[in-house]
Amino acid sequence: MKWRVVLLLSIALAAAGATAQAKPTPSTEILWDTYGVPHIFAADNAELFRAFGYAQMESHGDLILRLYGQARGRAAEYWGEKYAASDRWVVTNGIPELGAAWAKQQSPAFTKYLAAFAAGINAYAHDHSDRIAPELRAVLPVTPADVMAHSARAIQYTFVASEVAVRTQVRDSQTRAVAAAPSLDATEVGSNAWAISPKRTSTGHAMLLANPHLPWEDLYLFYEAQWNAPGVHLYGASLVGLPVIVIGFNGDLGWSHTVNPISAMNVYELAPLGEGYLFEGKEKAFEISHHTLKIRENNGAMKEEDLVVRKSVHGPVVVESNGRLFALRVAGLDAPGADEEWFEMARAHNLKEFQTALGHLQIPMFNVLYADREGHIFYAFNGRVPVRAKKDLGFWSRVVPGDSEANVWTKVHSFSELPQLEDPSTGWLQNSNDPPWTSTFPPELDAAKFPGYMAPQRASFRTQRSIRMLRVEPAFTLDKLVAAKYSTRSEMADRVLDDLIKTAMASDSQDAKDAALVLQKWDRAYDATSRGAVLFGSFALRWAGAPHAWATPWSTADPLGTPNGIADPRRALSVLVDAAEATKSRFGTADVAWGEANRFTRDSVDLPGNGTTGGLGVFRVIDFSPPVGHPGRAEGGDSFVAAVEFSNPVQARVVVNYGNASQPGSPHRSDQLTFAAQKQMRTAWLTRAEVEKHLESREAVP
């Protein structure tokens, strides 16, 4: 069967079993371009949302139903034991009930749109059930409560408070400190974003760079789309399964998000006392509820598990370890309007309207970078930041004692109380998951004017690289913006490589000298042809993570020049030799090309890779799996990327590196990996005439 059936607008469905609901609506259609991007033209907003749900199913139907099944807390019932842990997390945190409550708390207009989005999902599944994996059909029909539960699971319980982050905090509660130096984490959930004012462009137009990098799987996937309806003309991307575009631009303005180091959740340790826990010097009873989890076994039989949820004044108990109880409190559970806020942002036409939308403060986290046609640029450290009694961020970054009411926050800061910056004198704004204090440089936001728990003080190597590129370019063009976006030069290498080579060449170790010769020839970049990049990365991940590795640690007095130098030359040489031996063992040579060791692969596509982890100070972030026994495989990093110039008309370059579909059989699962390998972007087709010239198919939405 063909991948896509083109529905004729002039002929009513006459197949057996067709219903009146299956009749096409000629006024609403999807134009699919040659990269699988849906350009939706709808008669009204409700039809727009319906078509958006329909389109998402065509591109990601199996994934969406799996995600919604998980958000219901019934994934193990549908698909077996491997989802049992997910269900326990979802049910313990009350995500299905939260989704149902949020669905009822939407405005009348958005209630209608939410229902239309779910109806579009169900309409696609009804019309094309043969394209949905049989085991996933059990999730149907989808309801607005499912959509809201997925939104909560994806945002509040993945970005704000993931299970991994909670368990890590519990594990490290006695030793973890607020990070003050660049991190070398192997996998990042983050982004880059720039907003550039007209005085820093050669054309006199503001520019925006949207550059999220998330894992290339699961609920992290971005979905590129265009919306056209009365009062709504937006191009951008959504996270799969969400009913709205979350990063986008229209003819007047655009915005992007980065994950911010916001403290919007807390883990509390509870001291057991009797049948309850110690609170304000006496026993406090838990609120107890029982839930039956159904788990499908391999033979198809169903077993049941009684899940007891104990809820304290802080939140539910999410971890129990060696008699210790830990409860989770998450900000934003009382804010059901994040999706509607994104929709209001989409319909804004100037900075004032955009700020009014943000002022609702329904989106629980994410920095906002903004630019518009009038030439304004804007940054906001956005999110639901709790108002806390203690100002010390370190206190709130660890497990908090749960025995005092003073530690249980109940209010959040208003939008006006959050760090914001509009039209800075530098002419640019940036964020690379760093705190707000380096949103431009020299800084124009003073950390001392905000509560100490608002955000840490630090500047990662990636942030420093971002600022350096912005400061040295006096007049950006769209081409220069794209070229900067793909920079693979390592800021960390610039800080340590000269000292490392000098130390190695002066040593008595021939192995160290041989490794230094490889690094001496390296271009300090992570391009496909770069030789020495593998060796340096192997060295850096071994060396920089140790305490006191740097001769000069990171300092607020010199945020763009520290850390630097080698504190212990003997240890550095030992690590270098070990790294060289490991590289030769894996690849046969220490100067293997980066693109030989790390690949862009999916389905039948296999191409040389470029980019690396941002911890090395590379702006072009691509996370590769460890190359053990085979080349590393790209599994995260640059996702949806947009470079936008607010000219008249707007010009934009876009790419979704892994392709705009995950559905089996789709040609769009890997058709953009070539752009990733070539460090290129596509021209965004923004008008109907442009789309018609690059049309793959036309589809009416029933």
Give your account of this protein's structure.
It is a single chain. With 702 residues, the chain is an alpha+beta fold. Among the domains are: 192-263 and 334-478, 4-Layer Sandwich (Glutamine Phosphoribosylpyrophosphate, subunit 1, domain 1); 491-618, Penicillin amidase (Acylase) alpha subunit, N-terminal domain (Orthogonal Bundle), CATH 1.10.1400. The protein is built from 19 helices and 31 strands. The protein has a ten-stranded mixed β-sheet. Strands 3, 4, 21, 24, 25, 26, 27, 28, 29 and 30 form a ten-stranded mixed β-sheet that branches. Strands 15-16-9-19 form a four-stranded mixed β-sheet, covered by helices on one side. The longest helix has 27 residues, at 45-71. The relative contact order is 0.14. Residues 1-25 and 176-187 have low confidence and may be disordered.
Detail the topology: elements first, then pairings.
Blueprint: E1 29-33, E2 38-41, H1 45-71, H2 75-79, H3 84-92, H4 95-104, H5 108-127, H6 144-160, H7 163-171, E3 190-196, E4 207-215, E5 222-229, E6 232-239, E7 247-249, E8 253-258, E9 265-270, E10 272-273, E11 276-279, E12 282-284, E13 287-296, E14 302-311, E15 317-321, E16 324-330, H8 338-346, H9 351-358, E17 367-372, E18 377-381, H10 393-396, E19 400-401, E20 420-422, E21 428-431, H11 461-472, H12 478-485, H13 491-505, H14 510-521, H15 533-543, E22 550-552, E23 564-566, H16 569-587, H17 594-597, E24 598-602, E25 605-608, E26 622-624, E27 632-638, E28 640-645, E29 651-656, H18 673-678, E30 682-683, H19 688-693, E31 695-700
Parallel strand pairs: 2-5, 9-19, 24-27
Antiparallel strand pairs: 1-2, 1-31, 3-4, 3-21, 4-27, 4-28, 5-6, 6-7, 7-8, 8-17, 9-16, 10-11, 11-12, 13-14, 15-16, 17-18, 18-20, 22-23, 24-25, 26-27, 28-29, 29-30
Helix pairs in contact: 1-5, 1-6, 4-6, 8-9, 13-14, 15-16
